[in-house]
Structures are given as structure tokens and as C-alpha cells.
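Give me the fold.
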Amino acid sequence: MKKILIAAGALFAAGSLFAYNPPSGGQNVLRLSSPFALTGANSTAGGALHEVIPSSVLINPALSAAEQRISFDAGFTFLTDKNKYLDGSGMAFQLGATLPTRWCVPTVLVQGVFASLVDMHLEDSILGTASVSKDITDKVSVGIGVTGGLFWNDADSDWTLYANAGAVYNHGELAFMRDVRVAITVMNLGKMHSSDVAVLGIKGSAADDWPEFVTPRLGVAASFVDTGDFRLGGSVDVAAPGLYKDFVVDLGVALEYSGLKPVTFKFTSAWEFDVQEFRNDRTNIVPGVGLSVKFNLNAAKSKAMESHGWAESELMVGGAWRNLYKDINAFSAGAVFKLGQNDIIPPTITLWGNED
């Protein structure tokens, strides 16, 4: 009897896996609108070198918990589809902000995706995300976010509303590695885009509900080399859309050079292996690549900026390219602006004043 139940369960899982049919890119629709997201390897742990920006909460809402500065994030992506049947183009954009308080760290984002492409039939949507995060201990932070929005095409319209929850554990040093982080998120808890709308799935027929309801994701990231001026890090994430309907692995690497102060250069690359997309010839073999430059802005002459501790702020600009599904290429540019500098000097505590 036990063997029969096991066999039946295996057949059920295999049948569900075979039937899984989201649109190409449907699981990563929120990643398309930013160069930092395109090459961030969907890292739940904050990326290979732990660069947390407002759009980081789309993967793990707990990531912003340690953020001390007000941050603004903007991105734009142009999509080209050189399909042998029909050329096309699309676009995506985003605007986001992180606004730390003494109680928690809220983040808000607005995104738009317009991709009526033969090889990535995502059509048009506007999405908004709001999240809050908080440190529980010096090493553990948690967060929750809610995403909702509207979808439309020439045939129909739909809406979506779902929650993501996550946690991050900052371990620190481990053997030769530094800044070791382990993170987990449970995504897509709610009402997804309906299969009733006219969208093509990866099998060429009408798509299932997407993104897939209940998608757990586990990630690990660490720095392998840190000489002060040069850093090298990597990240690995695994996800299981629908718990058993698909299996996805994301790999990321980042190199940072800060020897030409006050400018810091960073090169990032990411690659994804999605079992279902590869089975259905929706491959993206070539890793995505990105380059960003970060530098300080001096506003010491502004009394208003100086009074808020923003005499020196930080600006990061970047671009990325990623090949998607053979014929689709994504060209993206974006910027992140952080007000002020991180406070890394602990306060001095005097118990009895200046006694002689």
C-alpha cells in the first residue's frame, strides 16, 4: 500500500510539472525594470556583495531592515524581440523609495511592464509594492511586503494582490568567507494573474495563473576576497514555484574596485536555470552583465542639506544587458540616490561626566 501511495504521489507531481505553463518571464516580471535587478541573481540575501536598494525588497522584504538612509531608486528597461515571425519591442520602468524610521524600515515601489512580445507575452501591467522590515537581533531581520496591480491587453483585464514574507540571517565570517548571509522568502501568497486572460504560456498555449502561487526561495551569499580596494563575492538562490511545479537556480557574481577614490566601480553578472523554461526551449544561456559606478556628492554649501546630516550623499548609476529567450534582449539603465552616509562610529557613553 505504501509503495502504491508513493507511486501515485510521484505520478501526480510529474503530471503537475508537465502541465505547468506560465508565460515566459512570468516568474520574474518584477525584475525587468532595473539594471540592478536584472543582474542581481534574484538574491534573497542581498546580492553577492550585499548592495541593498529599494528594489531589493521585491525579492526579500527583510533586506532593507538595516538601511539607515533615505534611498531613492529609478530604472528603465528597453526590450527588443527579433523574432523570426515578427519584430517587436517593449519597456519597463520603476520608481522606489526607502524611508527608515526608528520603529521599522518601510519601502514603496511603483513599476510598469509593457511587453506584448511573441517570445515573452507579458502584455501590460502596473504594479505597486509596499513593505516593512525590522531587525529582530543583531544578526536576524524579518520583513513582509504586499504587491498589487492591474493587467490588461486588447482582449481582457485582470488584477493581482499578494504578499511576500522573508528573513535574513547575517552570520559574518565563516572559514575564508566574509559577510556570509543566509535568507529565505515565501512569495506570491494571494491572488495571482488569472489564466482566463489571453496570454501565451511557455508551451505556446494559454498560460496558467502567474506568477505561481506559493514560491519558496532560499539563498546564500558571501564575500570571497576582500583586500580593501577589491572585493569579490557570489550568491546562490534556489526556488520552487508552486512548491513542486518547477525548480529554479540563480547564480550571481560581483567584483568591486574602490581604489580610484572617491569612485567605486562594480561589475555584476547573473545566470538563471529554470527547469520548465529549458524543457520548453525558452532558454537564456548567456549570463546577464551589468556595470555600475558609485560616488559621493558634496552638498556642504547647502545649510538645509547639512542640517539633516546630508552634506555628503551617495549616487550610484548603472547599466545592464541581458539576453532573454533567444530573441529578446533587455537594455537597462538606472540610478540609486542615498541621502547622507552610513553611521559606522558607535556613540561614546559617559556615565558620570567629566569628573576630576
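The chain is about 10% helix and 50% strand.
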